[in-house]
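Lab channel / #folding
Pinned by the channel admin:
"Please post every new chain as: sequence first, then the structure tokens as a reply. Keep commentary short and put observations after the output so the thread stays searchable."

First post following the new format, from NK:
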Amino acid sequence: MGNIRSKCGKSSRCRKKLTNKLNTSQKGVVGEYIEIANLTKQGYWVAKAVDPACPFDLVAVDKKGNIQLLDIKTNTYRKKAKKKTWSKRIGRSPTKLQKQLKIKYIMVDHGN
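Reply from TO:
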């Protein structure tokens, strides 16, 4: 596997091209790890769910012991039919179980 930085440098345009080549599942994994990094920088302890059927992706705990269950959603957009441009963001809504468990949705965007 090659080094992405050597091919792209710091160009955000290149990152967008690489992101667009990922399938939906891969974009979701990238989005989760982006949020893990963000939460860690904010001082949270973060644990990742291992069960693929789990209604949440991450557990975030602050220094006071407050626990948040988080479902990470990566923004996706509908393509306009005739033009190859991105238009409306596809909406996401929590399931009944996620509402009962008070799971918080976090939307992550990495340049679609």
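NK: Strands lie at 45-48, 58-61, 67-74, 77-79, 86-89, 104-108.
TO: also worth noting, The two ends are 23 Å apart (CA to CA).
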